[in-house]
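Changelog note: in this version the structure field was regenerated for every chain. One regenerated record is shown below for reference.
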Amino acid sequence: MRAQLTPEPSLSFSSIRINSRNPNPSRIPTSLHFLKKNGGHRLLGRKPRLIATRAVLDSATTEQLGLNESDIRNPAISSTYRNSKLPKPNQTVLEAQARVCTGPTQTRPLSEEQAFKVLDTILRSVRGELKDEEQVSKAQLGAFFAGMTIRANAFPEATQWSEGERCAMKKFWPQLVRVLPPDVIFIADPEGSIMGFGSAAGPHFVGNGTSEMRLVGALREILAGGHLGYEEVQGVLKDSFALKLEDGNSTGVSESLLSAFLIGQRMNKETDRELKAYCLAFDDELGPAPVADVRSLTHYGEPYDGNTRYFRSTLFVSAVRSCYGESSLLHGVEWMPPKGGVTEEQMLKFMGANTNLSLHQAKELIEDNKVGFAYISLREARPSLYSLIGLREQIKKRPPLATTEKVQQFITAKGRESIVAGFYHEGYEEPLLMLMKRRGVHSGLVIKGEEACEVDGVSLQSFRLEVNAMDYGFEPTDTPRTDRSVSKNIELGLAALRGEKGPTYDRIVLNAGIVDHLLGCDGAEDVSLALERAKEAIDSGKALKKLLNYIKMSNKSFIPDSFDVAGEHPTPSNHPPSFPLPLDVFLCPSPVLTFGYRSFGRSLEALPSGDSVSSTRSLRVMGY
């Protein structure tokens, strides 16, 4: 048997090629080749690698190397970055979770046939009749039954149980209640008012140990459709997410209960105090945040599960902005459900950068004039939250953490700080801005890009501005599609940084210049000048050099002379006071929504935009 990695992640265009023979880019850095005028090559990397990535292994070689076929992955495709050691969820139940573990209006009740199939699968799994990937995990059981319970207790009639679901549950519950563990029975009928038969267990369930008892108490409120206080949520999170004690033993918190808690809070639509609890709960996990000695720092919080359709520009935008002193901190993960799309960590790893930087190493790169930006993995910044990736895949839908992880300050700055966050679904614009204000940053933007469903925008009061992007010299174009191709995203981004004009170049320029303007950065008061500044950073070759410097210098060992972790980061009170300025921007015909606030007054004379600008056509800007 032969295992072949295709397509080849060999990036070839006018002046840049990326080549690698390494099927696992975390171990051997990829080399970057630049064509000289005489046709020769200039190499940036540890070893010359002139052969494109193509791994062809026969079964004997695979066995000799001690590899499983599932461990062989194509680094050019985002879906292959999933950790093969994570158990895969049962697909039948997972599809049901996608329908029933969502909001009061989005839930789609199961038909009788679907409900029978799901409950039969659960019954056979609990009885031990299903093996390996066919097994229904404890986390899936917790999420599914939590969704069913909240629907029965708190959802409107249209999204409560269907007649088919009632019929299926009536048939299967007498059998399920005999084999399900007590914690799942509690989740399915916490007050003994839903199922009828065998309903006494739920009201008497208290859990095992103090951590689980606290979790059970919180779940009783959540499963009834209720909400929790700030301190209560933080207590549950700190108890439940510390899955391992110092001696290596588990805290004993049930995965079923934890998954029910996470999906239940999302289904009930978290309150501001609940989101604040998630956002701030682990700020002190590794001690005080390092303080970067820079005049300006922008925290980019892109959706952690990546892009599956369109070009992801933030890494390249950060390289551009660093050329004129606007430092950036990007953060995320290598792979995250549910989308499992292209992420900054995948791109950086594919290009040979070190993606295991500590917070202090990232701080050094931000402060270094040769670089000016950094990427930090959640793995290094918040290990407890990183450990939940497998659980998050099992619960299918995004938990509250998917919102709050985008509004983090893993490193603070002596100068001004801003946060830019992307989002997929309507309804989280104001909560994200609320969290940014709670962080005390000087300015913030919340951007809806093309990876989400297209909408018409939100009408705000007192401000409206019509801008035609073609007035700034941009032609109407469609956003480049990359789908799940890491290599294609890199190819497009590097070509743009090399000065190749086109849709990708335009989007990087727009996103750099417009973010600078909307955040109130120095020198960006006039949007035309902000856009020209971004173009100059690219056309001069400075932005490409910054990115290449990052790849090279991230692999060095940084030993700072001293760690500056003292002092307070700036808050709006340190700057000229003014009213917050929320913004709403959308792009026609492919909308990109931008919401934001700034803690100072400034007239808008600009072309606002969001990440992955879809087409450079006319914009309507509304705000107050």
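Spot check on this record: Confidence is low (pLDDT under 50) at residues 1-63, 243-249, 452-468, 557-624. The CA atoms of residues 407 and 436 lie 6 Å apart.
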